[in-house]
Each structure stands twice: as C-alpha cells, then as structure tokens.
Amino acid sequence: MYGELKVKKRYLLCRVRISSGSITASQLYSVIMNKLCELYGWNGKAVTSLKTWQIKDRQNYFILKCSLRGLPYLLISTTLVNKLNDEWIAIDVLRISGTIKALLR
Amino acid sequence: MSKRIFTDAWLRPISADEAVRMVKLVGELGFSAIAIEGNDEIFRAASEAASQLGLELFRRKTINVNLREMLYEELSRHRWYYDLISVRSDQREVLMAALRDNRVDTVLLSHSSAPFIDHHMVSVANNLVEVALSDILEYGYESFYRVMKLAPYLRKNRIRVIMTSGASEISGIRTPRQLASVMLAIGVHPDMALDTVSGKIIELLRENREKLKGLLEPTGVWRIEG
C-alpha cells in the first residue's frame, strides 16, 4: 500500500554543449520544460516533475532529477533540444542512476 | 549478457576538421563504431582520428534519387566502393524497389517528404529502415509522425529499424541512449529501442567490409586463407 505512494526517482548526469560557452541551471530547466510541454503538454511536465542542479566547480555539468515514469519523456526532450535564443545547444545524458551517490561515483 | 556495440551509422561532416572533432566526440559519448559520409579527404582525417581512439570506421554513401532507373544506375556504380549504401527518396515506387534490393543496406523513411509506410512496403522490406535524428530535428512533427507510423510494424518484428544521428556538425550528435529514446518515445520496448543503435547494423557493416575485401562472397560463402 505504501509502495504505491512512493514515487521512484531517477537522476541524470548531463553535460551541455552550447555555442556561447555556458548556461545556468534555470536556463537549462526552462529550455527542457519548453520542449517537454511542446511534446507532451502539461501532463508530461507534471509526470516528469523535473529538477535541475548545477555541479559545483564544473561548468556545464548538471544533475537532473525526474520521476521514473517521466524518464522516457525527459530523455526524448533532452535529445530534441537544439536551440536556445538563436544559439545551438546539445544536451548529453552521460549517466542515469537511482541515487546521486551512484551517479557521481 | 554481451556488451552492446553502439554504432552511429550516419555522420556527414562538411570538412576534415569537423570530421576529426565529430569522431572524437562520438568516441567520448560511448559509440564503438561509426559510418562516415564524405569525400576522400574527410574520410582520411576521420580514419586517423578513429584509429587513435580505437573506433571502427566505415564508409557510407546516401543515394538520393526519385527514379527507379536512376537508383539501379547509382547502385551499380557505388555498391562495391562503400561499406554502407543508403537510399533516400520521395517516391514510394523507388523506396519499395530499394527496400527489396539486396544491394541496398538501409532506406531512409524519416524525412518530411517521405511517403508513409504501409503494409505493402512492409511485405517487401528485406532491408533495414533508417530513422535519422537530423530529420526529426529539422522537420519536427512532420518527421516524427512518419517515425510513429513505423512503431506497430517494429513492435511486431515485421521491419528492422536503425537509428542514426545524420549529424553534419557536432551539435547534431547525441549519446546512444538518447538516440534510442526516439524509439522509446513511440512506444517501443527499451531493449528493442537500444537494438536500433547496436547489434544488427554493426553485423551488417562488418559483413559488407569483408565482402569489399573479397573475403566473403555475395552469396554468403567465406573465403578462408589456407
């Protein structure tokens, strides 16, 4: 019964390649959310429940957190992101894990 | 469980420098084999970079025609010089001919002007159907809708599909898992989605290389040096 209430999470280690050089976590969040909304609408955004953090001292490396159910939505969204304010951008998903500890190992 | 050999079967760099950058990035992202389309200079530069990184490199040609006669002419001209021959066309008749011709390796069906796949095309399909990420990035919904039409046939194993990046610069390259996510998004099982970037295509490329070397007869007989 309690198992149904627990939402499983997945953490993604991402590297962003962008023509201008760097990007902030909030910019990354909004560009992924816009793509997610374009592809799956509000439902997709709600199911995915995305959070982004920048890794300390490592420019353009981020940790994304999403629900397990929203993982396919997030993967395709990161794949199809290719523009941010007339600059090219590419998001590389380097690793996927269930815990941050394992992700950064 | 054996380790997957991830393959990006379509990179088309515009210059030798770009080719080197792309090969390095592809190696970094986890691919073990790549197929490059380009002139001799591009291929030579890519080949040097690939050998340093330990990547398998193959040469590819995409034939873009809209007449069946021209397709046959191009095939007879190019087949024995390239490891991978792919066909791209707007005409259903040409695509059907390409799908059943044993000189063709893959048929591109993801561009916005490609006809929708139907059961007539599926019934004659001997070759791999190719989906290029660059088409989806360029044409958006038009391309994605065509890819979605492949899903029911792929789920029933009626067609064999491969996923390629089709990148002409480093901004178009993605990790193998991200390439497979396109298939995941159209409702294909995760294992089957990963198979579209590994497995079938590398076997085909290696077989074609042996055929070009003369070690494998087109009929499938291996020549063994005594």
How are the secondary structure elements laid out?
The complex is a heterodimer of chains A (105) and B (226).
Chain A: H1 2-5, E1 9-18, H2 25-48, E2 51-54, E3 61-67, H3 71-80, E4 83-84, E5 87-97, H4 100-103
Antiparallel strand pairs in A: 1-3, 1-5, 2-3, 4-5
Helix pairs in contact in A: 2-3
Chain B: E1 7-11, H1 16-28, E2 33-36, H2 40-53, E3 56-64, H3 68-78, E4 84-88, H4 92-100, E5 106-108, H5 119-124, E6 128-132, H6 133-139, H7 141-148, H8 151-155, E7 161-164, H9 176-185, H10 190-195, H11 200-213
Parallel strand pairs in B: 1-2, 2-3, 3-4, 4-5, 5-6, 6-7
Helix pairs in contact in B: 1-2, 6-7
CATH superfamily of the domain at 60-213 in chain B: Metal-dependent hydrolases
The amount of helix of chain B comes to 40-55%
Give the N-terminus to C-terminus distance of chain A in angstroms: 33 Å
Mean residue pLDDT of chain A: 89
Q: What gyration radius of chain B follows from the Cα positions, in whole Å? A: 17 Å
End-to-end separation of chain B in angstroms reads 34 Å
- Rough outline of chain B: globular
The count of helical stretches of chain A stands at 4
